[in-house]
Each structure stands twice: as structure tokens, then as C-alpha cells.
């Protein structure tokens, strides 16, 4: 069974490898043992997480 973990204010962690089908029909694949899927949609590597959610969270704290 594939393990999926929801991280509060962060990505969705999925045991890899994964094959992600995007709404436009394109496919993103990763053969990593653990894949972080972006939920904030700020990642420059979307749909894969690049930790942009951390920068956004830190900016909110500084305000």
C-alpha cells in the first residue's frame, strides 16, 4: 500500500516512485523514495515542492 502524508501548511508526502497526471494531460514522474507534492502552488518546480511554502510562512510571521 502506498503511504501518503498530509503536512500542515506544507506539501503532501507520497512514497515514491510516482507518476503525476496534470490537468493539461502532461505527466510528471519522480523515482525518489519520498516525493513532496506542492499544495501552495508557489513552487518553481510545480507540482513538486521546492519549499516555497516556508518562505511564504516566514513572511506572514514577520508582518
From TrEMBL:
InterPro entries xrefs: FeS-contain_CDGSH-typ, MitoNEET_CISD
The answer, when asked if DNA repair is one of the entry's keywords, is: no
| A Pfam family reported for this protein in Swiss-Prot or TrEMBL | zf-CDGSH
Which keywords does the record carry?
Answer: 2Fe-2S, Iron, Iron-sulfur, Metal-binding
Stretches assigned to the Iron-binding zinc finger CDGSH type domain: 15-59
A Gene Ontology cellular component where this protein is annotated is: cytoplasm
Q: Does the keyword Iron-sulfur apply?
A: yes
Q: Which GO terms describe its molecular function?
A: 2 iron, 2 sulfur cluster binding; metal ion binding
Its transmembrane ranges are none
Among SMART domains, the record links this protein to: ZnF_CDGSH (SM00704)
Q: Which domain of life is it from?
A: Bacteria
Name used for this protein in its record: Iron-binding protein
| Species whose genome carries this gene | Mycobacterium kyorinense
